[in-house]
Amino acid sequence: MVRGKAGKRFEFGQKLALSVVNGYTFIERQSFESFNEGVSLIASVERYKQAHGCHPEAVQADQIYRNRENLSFCNAHGIRLSGPRLGRPGKEHSVTGHSNTRIAVNETSLKAATAWQTAGLAWT
Length: 124
Hints:
By secondary structure, the protein is α+β, with helices and mostly antiparallel strands. Helix content is 27%, strand content 21%. Strand 3 and strand 4 form a beta hairpin. The termini are far apart.
C-alpha cells in the first residue's frame, strides 16, 4: 500500500478495522488490499446492537470515521462520535502573535499560522 507516512513510502501486510467493547477486541474487517475504514462504522455499530440489544452510547474513532454519513447515522441514533467538527475551525481556534498563542486545530492551518508568526504577523 502506498502511504504518506514519514520515513515510509510503502506499508506491507494486512490492514485491519477493529472494535473494542468492554476490553474485548473484534475484527470488523481485514484485507491485504487497501480500503477506507470510514465506511465500516455503521456496520460495526449495527453488529454491536445485534449482540447487545442496543446501540452504543458513544463511539471513539479516528478522524477518518467522521464523515457526513456516519455523523448523520450517529446523530439519528443518539450516539456520541468522538473527534472535531467537520470543516474549517471557527474563530475561537485562531492563532495570534501574542504570548497567549492559541493553536489552530488542523495541520494546514497550523503550518500557515506558524509561517505568519515567523514573519511577525498575527493571524485571526
